[in-house]
Amino acid sequence: MPHTDPQAALAERGLVLRQLTQSGDSAAENPAVARQYRTVERGFYEEPPTGEALDQWLGLSREDGRRFLGVYPQGTDPAQTDPVGTFVDFVKGLHVGGGREVPAWLISNVTVSPTHRRRGILRAMMGASIQTAADRGHPVAALTASEGGIYSRFGFGVANSFRSIEVDVAGGLPLRGPAPTGSVRLVEPRELEGLGEELFRRAYLQTPGSVERTASYRVEETDTNLHRNGGKGTGLYAAVHHDDGGRPRGFVTYRFAGWDKKPQTMEVQSFITTTAQSHRALWQFLGSLDLIDRVTWQAAPDDGLLEAMVVDRRRVRTTFTQDRLWLRVLDLPTALSARLWSQDGALILKVSDSMGWAEGIWRVDVVGGEAAVAPAAGADPDLSMDVAELGSVWLGGISPEVLRQAALVTEHHSGAAAQLGRMLAQDRPVHCMTGF
Ligand SMILES: CC(C)(COP(=O)(O)OP(=O)(O)OC[C@H]1O[C@@H](n2cnc3c(N)ncnc32)[C@H](O)[C@@H]1OP(=O)(O)O)[C@@H](O)C(=O)NCCC(=O)NCCS
After folding, report:
1. Of 135, 170, 189, 272, which has the highest C-beta tally within 10 A?
2. Ligand 1 pocket residue status of 115, Cβ below 6 Å
3. What integer pLDDT is reported at residue 8 of this predicted model?
4. pLDDT band at 2 (very low <50, low <70, confident <90, very high)
5. Is residue 246 in contact with ligand 1, taking CB distance under 6 Å?
6. Confidence band of 4 (pLDDT split at 50, 70, 90)
């Protein structure tokens, strides 16, 4: 259990943590939530939406089931006062491999006013939120971070990464191997309504370490976000790959970067594929767009698939890599036994957790890929690690052996880190398709 009472820590500073409840989808019905959302946008230096665009956002937020926490000066009315701290949590599926999911507690929209930084507001909001997650039985909390240095102190570890790529397509993008099968059709982005979700769902269940999408992805993909150009469209294009039987297997959405940009560039927004052929066909399609010399994708997986597919792998350049999903184990036995393990074996793990939830010595017995996890106080551990490192290695995206070499995992019996790595390996590359 946490050692401090977050509410008491705030009260000492004349502040109070409130939970806002959203009812209905309009700003008129939800002045406090609308005010909080506008504060979040300003916290990230964005222009906040108003009018119908704000109402649209409130509707999407209700679809996600977002819960709003805000920190306010004591005695103020949230409908008439901007919060000095904002925090949102909600529940979505996390694919833990082999098509299995757990309900993850997602954290988002974290901001603290520049006038109130470094007074423990984030710590108080985080403590209150993950206490609720633990009370409700969610095995893990998850977030994607705007800065890398904030969250490991709260027990979050980086579970996977993404990268930005530039692909040189001047003169086409020759692929190795036979020509892709099926066909690619241009569609209006609005035609992705429903289909985008269906294909995403299938791709998500093929991608361990991925989180279900927030509702806002739908309006971005169909180019119907009212905050952008009043919902009249922003020049987004969409193409769908169908297999030889005419079944949709993948899609891409993309936008021209403008004639002023040299080399002439097409920017990928979404790239969702469910078969090897849809992956090949859509890259071949992107590589053959007239007048385009470069294709960029800001949130590509770091799995080497594109490099393996093209004749000249040097046409693919990584311009940026960054941590993507951060995971915080709350209920260790439930989290570890939720996923299918790739190798049987038995290990004793000693986990330290300054907030208490995963603290202890645990025996993990894997038989037939299923883990039985039980407390083993007093047992001689094979490995020791902090809960943040457990969050990193749990889904197989980060190697325990690498963390041992970084002295973040301590091995008490030789070879135990490598053994844990083999046991946690996934069949498919670990990647999170969603930012939130
Ligand atoms: C990041 C942010 C939310 C921190 O809020 P805060 O209320 O100042 O944080 P707290 O006072 O509760 O600090 C808690 C701990 O985190 C540390 N911390 C806070 N912000 C940090 C940062 N940007 N980098 C590194 N450490 C940070 C504090 O030093 C403190 O550490 P300690 O408890 O070990 O002494 C705030 O600076 C902010 O709003 N930034 C802009 C928006 C943003 O980046 N949001 C994060 C979205 S993922």
Report:
1. 272
2. no
3. 86
4. very low
5. no
6. low
> How many angstroms separate the alpha carbon of residue 122 from the centre of ligand 1?
6
β-pair partners for 316: 167
Which amino acid, residue 180? P
Q: Alpha carbon of 418 to those of 347, 409, 414, 424: distances in Å?
A: 12, 11, 9, 10
Which of ligand 1's atoms lies nearest the C-alpha of 112? 39
Q: Whose CA is nearest to atom 28 of ligand 1?
A: 118
Residue 206 has pLDDT above 90, yes or no: yes
Strand pairing class (236-242; 183-187)? antiparallel
Distance 36 CA to ligand 1 centre (A): 19
Length of the chain: 436
Out of 69, 117, 146, 325, give the residue to mutate to test ligand 1, the one with the largest number of ligand atoms within 8 Å of its CB: 117
CA distances from 65 to 141, 144, 222 (A): 16, 18, 21
Taken in order of first residue, the domains within the chain and their CATH numbers are 6-138 (3.40.630.30), 162-322 (3.40.630.30), 332-424 (3.30.1050.10)
Of ligand 1's listed atoms, the one at least distance from the Cα of 44 is 42
User: Would you say the CB of residue 121 lies under 6 angstroms from ligand 1?
Assistant: yes
Closest C-alpha to ligand 1, atom 4: 122
Q: Is 147 in the pocket of ligand 1 (CB under 6 A)?
A: yes
Low-confidence winner among 37-41, 158-162, 228-232, 398-402 (lowest mean pLDDT): 228-232
Exposed, middle or buried: residue 197 (CB in 10 Å: 0-12, 13-18, 19+)?
A: middle
Is the pLDDT at 269 greater than 70? The verdict is yes
Euclidean distance between CA atoms 377 and 360, whole angstroms: 7
Q: How many CB atoms lie within 10 A of CB 33?
A: 26
The two structure tokens encoding residue 26:
């309009």
Of 269, 274, 239, which is closest to residue 256 (Cα–Cα)? Answer: 269
Structure tokens at 311: 């004749």
101 vs 206: CA distance, rounded Å: 11
Quickly state the pLDDT bin for 3 (edges 50, 70, 90).
very low
| Bridge partners (DSSP) listed for residue 183 | 242
pLDDT, residue 1, reads 44
Whose Cα sits closest to atom 26 in ligand 1?
150
Cβ-contact 435, 270 below 8 angstroms: no
Please give the DSSP secondary-structure letter assigned to residue 182: S
What beta strand segments (E) does 155-304 contain?
A: 157-158, 161-168, 183-187, 236-242, 248-256, 265-273, 294-300
Tokens found for residue 177: 């191997």
CA of 127 to the centre of ligand 1 (A): 13
C-alpha of 304 from chain center: 20
